[in-house]
Fold XRE family transcriptional regulator.
Amino acid sequence: MDYKIKMLRAILGVNQEEFAKLIGVFPLSVWKWENGTNPSRPSMKLIADFLGEDDFDRFMSSVDDPAFQEMAYRMRCKVQNKQIH
């Protein structure tokens, strides 16, 4: 999971703090996920809510899967159109 969070964040063009704000968690949580701690069920729900059900399924697929790449592109467009405060 750690590499997927890192990859998604890189694709979105956001740092850990910005990603945390987008999904509604503390930056320390994102750091932990990227360093080997799996997100809790409530945290996975927050990620799923941010991505949407279909894109969450794609997120959980292999990063080499074209569905993952498609989801990442859509999420990048979503974030670029949204001001992060």
About this structure: The chain has one domain: 2-80. The radius of gyration is 12 Å. The CA atoms of residues 59 and 68 lie 6 Å apart.
